[in-house]
Write a structure and sequence with these properties.
Blueprint (H helix, E strand, L loop, with lengths): L1 E3 L2 E2 L14 E9 L2 H9 L13 E9 L11 E4 L9 H4 L21 E4 L1 H6 L1 E3 L6 H4 L2 H14 L6 E5 L3 H12 L3 E6 L2 H9 L3 E4 L5 H8 L5 E6 L4 H6 L4 E9 L13 H6 L3 E3 L6 H12 L9 E6 L3 H9 L5 E5 L1
Parallel strand pairs: 8-9, 8-11, 9-10, 11-12, 12-13, 14-15
Antiparallel strand pairs: 1-2, 3-4, 3-6, 3-15, 4-5, 5-7
Bound molecules: zinc ion.
Length: about 325
């Protein structure tokens, strides 16, 4: 439980019962991500403290509700923490990521032994974990779904050049997926270990402290600018700078959100006369989750390389203190 910013407490709780039509999963692997770290640092408007947290996980089915036939006790499973209702305006019009009822069944509490998964998630966003996929890799289903959705929305054409700003876990996943689609991905970041890691993964990993990103892009593209830029740092400064990095007619995708109430400003002439398009992908659809599942199941991505270290659940406070220093990409929590 996150009881207040930067204070995590382990608590004993009753074993959860499977919700109607749902299952309970014994967590085998949970991952940390940027949202968890932000929540740890300053709380989250949708998660009043004390709150359970953690939302990237995989495990084994511990119990099932009456009538559940798709999964049985003992099955290894991987799922995401939400599923759309399928009935609201947005669901009926192909934008399930914006489902008005998305949060009502959101699961939190992957940093625990057991987690209850509601019917809607079981029916739409839960998969049998292939036996040759580790639990830690399977726990990438949720972050990878977000990245699949982001790239689907941007729809870059093969052969185009896309700048990915920020080389945290999400930036690296974007660059890996873009590269798979035949897109030239220029991945910018500051921390030397991450620049080196991305390079080891075969990415065009560029040290953003060497010279201004705009200069590097101008040099690489003959002053034209990249076809698209994906903002993965979540800083106001980079949001505002991103439109200057793309070519005339280019697109900017704001993947990383900003704190509530943030305001950003852009040069209107740049947007209008150069026809620069701004998009801001959010969350994912069941189709994106299936694509992410297929990527994981086919061993398409070097996911283990993104895990800096592993911790047992009783050392989770230590894990978050370390994340807070910026000295780790993603940490694996194993109950
Ligand atoms: Zn809906």
């Amino acid at each position: 439980m996150l009881v207040s910013p930067k204070t995590i407490e382990l608590r004993e709780e009753a074993v959860p019962a499977a919700p109607p039509g749902g299952i309970v999963v014994r967590v085998r692997a949970a991952l940390t991500d940027g949202t968890d770290l932000k929540t740890y640092r300053r709380g989250h408007p949708k998660m009043p403290m004390p709150t359970r947290f953690g939302h990237e996980f995989s495990g084994d089915v511990a119990s099932v509700a009456t009538g559940v036939t798709a999964f049985a006790v003992g099955d290894p499973v991987m799922c995401v923490h939400t599923a759309p209702c399928g009935q609201c305006y947005w669901c009926r019009n192909g934008q399930e990521e914006l489902c008005e009822d998305l949060l009502s069944t959101m699961i939190l509490g992957a940093y625990s032994d057991l987690i209850a998964v509601p019917q809607r998630v079981v029916e739409r966003n839960c998969f049998h974990k292939p036996l040759d996929i580790g639990y830690a890799q399977a726990a990438f289903l949720e972050p990878l779904s977000c990245v699949v959705h982001s790239i689907e929305l941007l729809a870059p054409v093969p052969g185009s050049t896309v700048a990915v700003i920020g080389n945290g876990g999400f930036g690296i996943l974007h660059a890996l997926l873009l590269q798979r689609r035949g897109v030239e991905a220029l991945l910018f970041g500051r921390r030397p270990q991450r620049v080196a890691l991305a390079r080891e993964l075969g990415l065009q990993s560029i040290d953003a402290t060497a010279s201004p990103i705009g200069d590097i892009i101008a040099e690489r593209t003959g002053d034209r600018g990249v076809d698209a830029a994906i903002e993965c740092t979540g800083s106001i400064e980079m949001w505002e700078r991103a439109p200057s990095l793309v070519r005339r007619g280019g697109r900017v995708s704001f993947f990383a959100g900003l704190p509530a109430e943030s305001r950003v400003s852009f040069d209107a002439a740049r947007l209008h006369y150069d026809e620069v398009q701004l998009i801001a992908p959010f969350h994912f659809t069941p189709r994106d989750v299936r694509s992410a599942y297929e990527l994981i199941a086919s061993h398409a991505l070097p996911l283990s390389a993104l895990i800096s270290d592993g911790y047992s659940l009783d050392r989770i406070a230590e894990a978050f203190r370390r994340l807070d220093t910026g000295d780790a990409l993603k940490l694996l929590i194993e109950p």
